[in-house]
Specification:
With 238 residues, the protein is of the alpha/beta class. Helix content is 31%, strand content 19%.
Length: 238
Amino acid sequence: MGEYNMMLLQGDCLDLLPTIPDGSIDMILTDPPYEISNSGGGMMDRDNREFIRNIDGMGMCRSNFDVTGFLNACLEKFEHKSRFCGVFFCGMKQLSSYICWAENNKLQVGVGVWHKSNPAPLCNFKYLNDVEYWVYIKGNKSKILGNYHSKSMVYSSQINKKDKKLYRHPTIKPVEIIEKFLTNHSLDGAVVLDPFMGSGTTGVACKNLNRNFIGIEKDPEYFKIAQERIFGQEEVVI
C-alpha cells in the first residue's frame, strides 16, 4: 500500500469546514443526522425506544438539521461544482431535501438502499425496518467508477451487531459498504471527507483502500474511538 494521510478533527463540522481549504476535497462520504419517527407500530418496543433516546441524546437525530446549508458548505470544498462528489446516508424524510438541492444546482443525483437482511422482527401494522437510504450527488466531471458488481443501487448485508457492541455506536455502517462507495467514486490517493465521522468507519475504509482522509467528529468519546480504530492505540496529536 502506498502512503496516505489521515487527519482527524474534533468539533462541530459547520465550525471546522471553513478551516479546510476550498477546492481540496475529491469526495464526501458521510452519515449526517437524520429524522426518524419515535412513535407508532411495531418498531416501538422497549429496545427501539431506547435506540431513539440514544441517537437523539447524541445529536444523531435532529428535526432541524439544515441539509441545504450543510450541502452548500460542502460544495465550497470542491475545485468546481462540476467535480462535486458526495454520498450521504439519510432518512426517508430527508430524501427530498437532498434531491431538490442537487436539482437546483444542476447536479446528478440517485437514491440507493442498504438492505438489512436481519432486521428486528417488529412489523405490527408497518413494513419491516429493513432498508436505509443513501444518496449520491455528482457533477458531470465526476465519474462513477467500479464495476458491474459494485454499482448495484442495493447493498445487502446483515446488521453488524459485533461492531455496534465493540464501538458502541448505534448507527455504525459496515466497512464493506463504505469501501463500495470509495471504489465507485474515488481513485487511489483521493482526499475523502467525512464531516460526521462517528466511530471512524470511513477512515478505516480509506486506510484499507489507500485514500487520504479528513474526519470530523463532535462527540469526544466517538472521536477517541475513531482515533484508536484508525491509528491504533498510540497517542495521536491533531
